[in-house]
Protein 1
Amino acid sequence: MKEKLALYGDVLENVSLKEYNTFRIGGLCHYMISPFTVLDLQNLLSFLQLQHICYFVLGNGSNVIFSDDFFEGVVIRLNHFDQIEFSGLRVNAEAGVLLPKLASLSIQQSLTGLEWAIGIPGTVGGSVFGNAGAYNSCIFDLLEQVTVLTMQGEIQNLKKDEITYGYRTTYFKENPEYIILKATFLLAAGNKEESQERVHTRQMKRRATQPLEYPNAGSVFRNPSSDNPSGRIIESLGLKGMQVGGAKVSEKHANFIINTGNATSNDVRNLIELVHQRVQDECNIDLVMEQEYVGWDQYEKENK
Ligand SMILES: Cc1cc2nc3c(=O)[nH]c(=O)nc-3n(C[C@H](O)[C@H](O)[C@H](O)COP(=O)(O)OP(=O)(O)OC[C@H]3O[C@@H](n4cnc5c(N)ncnc54)[C@H](O)[C@@H]3O)c2cc1C
């Protein structure tokens, strides 16, 4: 199988997913493949479908909680899709480009709009998928168009107004069969020094308020509203420091769960459930998760 997959990109076998997500948790996957071109990806998809092999598309793994179980399928990474093209106020970025890189290159081009993205360790693909954002801005504010690959191997250009989206959610989350290949953003003419200053201030703020010294996957829950952030609700219940196994509610930011060293996926999920339940019982608020639990049953079943 490895030789067959190698026709479509770089292949690794029996890979620990811990190395491929910012939480540093998860089991092994049977294969991981990084296609070089869109054609490789198209051919790979049709091969996997013919063979009834399930797959999961991974960005930088900064919003996922992987299961500890073995994944009897293929994880597809688009890390070779890393081209960025500037044209006037527009920038085209392939799915595998990291947001901090896109933001800093845009600033170097004296373009403004993406400063908020500098501290978000996701790819363009993963960030369009979940409509990442910060400081009252989000990726869909700047988006013009997304190029996707359908399950049938067809390339489609979707204009922003053809895609429904909201706070940390999009059409793609409801329709995960689309693979995001590339996105076009419209920025504005800016001042490099002012943008660099803004970025510096925000990075200092993130370092001061987020537990970046521990593996984590960003905010656990969406905020019920902008004036009632989840972190404040969880902190008000005294849940900072609550721990299950190696997973702990951060002392620095109550909406972050950190891996103190050897947390399992179940530790993280059980802790999330406990926090969710306490908030439900004591505040009557049903917090919605921002992070995504990735269990393999659903993928493996679909292909049987
Ligand atoms: C320290 C820290 C701070 C963070 N701060 C923020 C923040 O301020 N705001 C915010 O919104 N998020 C934040 N996050 C969360 C995370 O970085 C974002 O959600 C990011 O956009 C996820 O991108 P990713 O490439 O890591 O996606 P992944 O975690 O790899 O994947 C997430 C989902 O996207 C899907 N996906 C990935 N690539 C593609 C593709 N090409 N086509 C189709 N589907 C795809 C995956 O299948 C998965 O379902 C933070 C995370 C950390 C660790």
Note: The pocket of flavin-adenine dinucleotide is lined by residues 22, 57-64, 78, 95, 120-123, 125-127, 129-130, 132-134, 179-180, 210, 212, 216-218, 292 (CB under 6 Å).
Protein 2
Amino acid sequence: VDEVNYCLRCGTKLHRITALNETGQRLACSSCHFIHYENPKIIVGCLVINGNRILMCQRAIEPSHGLWTPPAGFLENQESLEMGAVREVREETGVLLDPESLIPHVITSLIDCQQVYILFRANTGSSTPAAGPESLKAEFFARSEVPWDQLAFRGMRQYLELAFEEIQNERFSIHVSKIESTRFRRRSFPVSDDNRAKAGFLGSS
Ligand SMILES: [Zn+2]
């Protein structure tokens, strides 16, 4: 992660301080007292499922150029998690999804890269994805067809294998995990009824 060295407001050199009542250090400006907060970025994506196949794209950009991953990317301002995931899927694979059809699947704290990774799942009848500008290819893969030795990110293999098992058994969970240096910890919460989650939407529609 790049570090900001100069104040975004007045251009004075920033320095690290320990703020009152807080643990850890903040980057602060000694001139205008602006504090440059550094917080994890949110990555959203979706496991798009067609029958027993999962949609993946081959990355046309760094990091991991040429390697495969389910569509995902940084959440933008003004977007809900679902909207962000739907946008990433559309941009990278051309597949259109209804945001309200998305079901939470994986929530991972990537401590070392200062990211939170939120992966939904959704079913689609679409079978002809089209790669967007950030992808070389977009394809649906059955378990035996996945390019297992060309996956983009650490931890991805484990989640894909889990997802294929869940698809086969028609029993899904929400997986909450934490990856820190070489340590991996996961808790799984079975979802007993997908439709109940949909009915739980609050507010007007
Ligand atoms: Zn300043």
Note: The pocket of zinc ion is lined by residues 7, 9-10, 12, 29, 31-32, 34 (CB under 6 Å).
